[in-house]
Amino acid sequence: MKQLLFMLIISLLAGCSPAATPTPKPVFKIFASSAVQPWLSDLYQCADQNNVLLSVSNDPASADVSLRLGEIENLTSPAYKIDDEEILVVTHLQTGISTLTVDQVRAIFSGQVSNWSELGGSDVPVEVWVYSEDEDIQQVFDQAVMDGLPATSLARLAVSSQYMSDSVGMNPGSIGVLPRRWKAGNTHETLIATTSPVLAIARPGVDEAINSVLACLQK
């Protein structure tokens, strides 16, 4: 009887002892350009598998990891290639154009073509859409196609890949540039401008816990 009472007391004391404090998960800030945001879902899955939390940042300078299109010259930070993406030149269906050459695209974007009829298409004015110069997809496109020529001063500005897709799809005569994963709706692929690597760039000195997440993303 005494032994049973002793065991009962021990059990009660054990049940009253404080639970062990769980180890907090590391949290990392992630920046993704608009062109590569479709890869964020894969990144979150890899973070969950490796017990890591991610917080999206709008400032690449403060981010622990940045996702972007295209390589950067003289890069000193660790970079992981996680995929390849085709960069497309797309037009509205009403342009009447099925395919374009690199030279034709360069002429259009530099303002040398004002109407699609000049290239055998519909009698519709050309409406050029571009991104800002600091957007990675614009830099990739300029390097692959424009050969140093600036875009026409009449070009309209797309603030994101989603905006570009919507704008080209809604405006007859329009032409723009999209990653293949962003092509949707009433847009027609006229040229594969280039294929660009999708990179995950880690900030120097960032905690090694993020390396397992990025390695997962490469698989």
Question: Could you characterize the architecture of this molecule?
Answer:
The chain has helices spanning 2-16, 40-49, 102-109, 136-146, 161-170, 209-218; strands spanning 27-32, 53-56, 65-69, 79-92, 127-130, 156-157, 174-179, 187-202. The chain has 219 residues and is α/β, with parallel strands linked by helices. The protein has 2 domains: 27-83 and 199-218, D-Maltodextrin-Binding Protein, domain 2; 86-196, D-Maltodextrin-Binding Protein, domain 2, CATH 3.40.190. The chain has an 8-stranded mixed β-sheet, sandwiched between helices. α4 links the parallel β5 and β6 (156-157). α2 crosses α6 (209-218). It is elongated and about 65 Å long. It starts with a helix and ends with a helix.
Keyphrases for this structure?
29% helix; 219 residues; D-Maltodextrin-Binding Protein, domain 2; 6 helices; single chain; 2 domains; alpha/beta
CATH class (first level) name of the largest domain: Alpha Beta
The tally of structural domains comes to 2
Query: What is the string of helix and strand elements?
Result: HEHEEEHEHEHEEH
Q: How would you state the average pLDDT, rounded?
A: 88
Oligomer: single chain
* Parts with pLDDT < 50 across at least 5 consecutive residues: none
Strand content: 25-35%
| Largest sheet, spatial ordering of strands | 2-1-3-8-4-7-5-6
The CATH topology of the largest domain is given as D-Maltodextrin-Binding Protein, domain 2
Number of strand segments? 8
Summarize the biggest pleated sheet: 8 strands, mixed
CATH architecture of the largest domain: 3-Layer(aba) Sandwich
The proportion of residues forming helix, as a percent range, comes to 25-40%
